[in-house]
């Protein structure tokens, strides 16, 4: 398993003409060192620090970076931080070292050449946004998800190419660095023991936006560009998921395959049952009664809060889902569904009446009139595994590449480099192909049982990517406010990154 390594550079003292000393940059590197260690769980011995005494000569830095890069392996993550002067001359941005100017683009090229799987650069200097990152991520057709997700380079700069970066008033630290440290150290971005670069960047942007609104004369607009596949996740603490109990029970007549908790203001279970042979409705009612007695007092919960609330109490509502095979359950093609509630529930609400509904005793049945038709349709349209995998990957890989282009366009909008009309035009150019691929994915064969979860998740990603183009579509964007469009896009991108991580896990099982 790879490690996270870091290079921290702070230039406080200068010999180059026209560059005044910046003593607070020494505080920047101390603060960011602590933020990397405490916020991202980087080991102190995995951090190279340049500038503790104030000076950083360019030749010394380049030599130190070359030596440090020899310790980095292909499965490592690499962080880079720079604090000091920056300038923009003849359409080129430079980082200013003690004695020389260093083109920002040369630094990015040097970092991209290092064999770490992901490189994340933080640049805190004036005119920091004058750089390019080579394209957006491309998901090659023959690549595995593991070879795509979290690989590439991302740069977060403190200001646009036209702006200066500032010291934070009243503090001996740079403004951007202070916000970056707060974002890195924040506990609110921890999810399942990890922090994502996406969440860190989002929190950093929020802090900077609040600052800009209250101090418009001192605005800084952070710039983000990347060719990462998805985002980068950092393991920051041990994570022990709640152990959800699995329940399986078999008799001569039926098999209880799963019991899922869906507790709300009542204790509720959903139970999937395979009947071992075709039976009458009255016989299913007998099976259902036996099933209720077996699961009613089970202790199955989604988390600790559920357990604290419902432990030891009988279920108030039990939903039954009955099929004749595992294929029925995988495809949600049930012979019937049942609802049972205890006497404290509103049975007039839960026990529906009408076509295909019947109440036997205290159990409400919904009989599926299309069961046989759907069973035949599923059998006829279930695809061959290897062929389906190939067709799905072709579509999904291209959709993911297009999603990265959409996200790159959106980041340009958030960077202030284009207006909303330009964003709508760029997304509009990508939307037709995304729509076509999305529809192709929905028209694929039904997956065999062993591919159901993977295939369903691919469908979810296709739907998520399709959603991305809706918020800034020429036909729909006026139905939302500007703030709502951005909030919806942000939520969808976050969901996309989470879905990519899940796809990586599922692909390992193929």
CATH class of the largest domain: Alpha Beta
Q: Which structural class fits the helix and strand makeup? A: alpha/beta
Radius of gyration: 28 Å
Q: Main sheet, how many strands, which sense, barrel?
A: 7 strands, mixed
Terminal CA distance: 21 Å
Apparent shape? elongated
Instruction: State the total count of DSSP E strands.
Output: 18
In a few lines, what is going on in this structure?
By secondary structure, this protein is α/β, with parallel strands linked by helices.
How is this fold's topology laid out?
Layout: E1 4-10, H1 25-40, E2 47-50, H2 58-69, E3 77-83, E4 86-89, E5 92-96, E6 101-103, H3 104-112, E7 118-124, E8 152-157, H4 175-185, E9 194-196, H5 197-214, E10 223-226, E11 233-235, E12 249-250, E13 254-261, E14 268-275, H6 281-295, H7 304-310, E15 317-323, H8 326-330, E16 336-341, H9 347-350, E17 357-360, E18 363-367, H10 371-381, H11 385-414, H12 420-442, H13 452-468, H14 482-507
Parallel strand pairs: 1-2, 1-3, 3-7, 7-8, 14-15
Antiparallel strand pairs: 4-5, 5-6, 8-10, 9-11, 12-13, 13-14, 15-16, 16-18, 17-18
Helix pairs in contact: 1-4, 4-5, 11-12, 11-13, 12-13, 13-14
């Amino acid at each position: 398993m790879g490690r996270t390594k870091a290079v921290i550079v702070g230039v406080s003292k200068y010999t180059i003409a026209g560059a005044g000393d910046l003593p607070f940059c020494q505080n920047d590197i101390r603060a960011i060192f602590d933020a990397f260690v405490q916020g991202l769980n980087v080991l102190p011995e995995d951090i190279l620090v340049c500038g503790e005494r104030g000076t950083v000569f360019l030749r010394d830095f380049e030599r130190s970076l070359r030596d440090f890069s020899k310790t980095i392996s292909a499965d490592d993550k690499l962080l880079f931080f720079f604090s000091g002067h920056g300038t923009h001359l003849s359409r080129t941005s430079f980082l200013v070292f003690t004695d020389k100017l260093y083109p920002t683009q040369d630094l990015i090229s040097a970092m991209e050449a290092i064999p770490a799987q992901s490189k994340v650069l933080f640049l805190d200097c004036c005119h920091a946004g004058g750089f390019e990152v080579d394209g957006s991520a491309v998901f090659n057709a023959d690549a595995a998800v593991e070879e795509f997700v979290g690989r590439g380079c991302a740069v977060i700069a403190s200001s646009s190419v036209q702006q200066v970066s500032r010291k934070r008033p009243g503090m001996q630290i740079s403004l951007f660095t202070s916000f970056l440290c707060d974002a890195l150290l924040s506990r609110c971005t921890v999810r399942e023991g990890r922090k994502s670069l996406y969440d860190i960047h989002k929190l950093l942007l929020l802090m900077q936006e609040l600052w800009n609104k209250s101090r418009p004369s001192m605005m800084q607009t952070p710039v983000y560009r990347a060719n990462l596949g998805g985002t980068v996740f950092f393991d920051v603490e041990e994570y022990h998921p709640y152990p959800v109990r699995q329940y399986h029970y078999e008799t001569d007549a039926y098999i209880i395959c799963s019991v899922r908790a869906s507790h709300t203001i009542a204790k509720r279970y959903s139970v999937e049952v395979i009947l071992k042979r075709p039976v009458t409705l009255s016989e299913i009612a007998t099976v259902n009664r036996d099933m209720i007695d077996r699961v009613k007092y089970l202790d199955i919960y989604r988390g600790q809060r559920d357990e604290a609330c419902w432990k030891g109490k009988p279920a108030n509502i039990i939903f039954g889902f009955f099929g004749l095979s595992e294929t029925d359950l995988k495809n949600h093609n049930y012979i019937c569904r049942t609802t049972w509630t205890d006497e404290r529930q509103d049975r007039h609400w839960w026990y529906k009446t009408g076509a295909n509904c019947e109440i036997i005793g205290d159990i409400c049945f919904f009989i599926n009139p299309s069961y046989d038709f759907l069973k035949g349709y599923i059998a006829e349209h279930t695809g061959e595994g290897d062929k389906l995998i190939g067709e799905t990957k072709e579509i999904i890989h291209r959709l993911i590449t297009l999603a990265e282009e959409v996200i790159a366009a959106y980041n340009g909008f958030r960077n202030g480099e284009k207006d909303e009309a330009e964003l709508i035009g760029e997304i509009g150019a990508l939307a037709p192909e995304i729509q076509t691929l999305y529809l192709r994915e929905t028209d694929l064969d039904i997956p065999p049982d062993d591919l159901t979860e993977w295939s369903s998740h691919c469908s979810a990603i296709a739907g998520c990517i399709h959603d991305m183009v809706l918020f800034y579509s020429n036909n729909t964007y006026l139905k939302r406010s500007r703030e709502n469009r951005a909030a919806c896009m942000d939520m969808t991108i976050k969901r996309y990154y989470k879905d990519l991580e899940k796809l990586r896990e599922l692909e390992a099982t193929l």
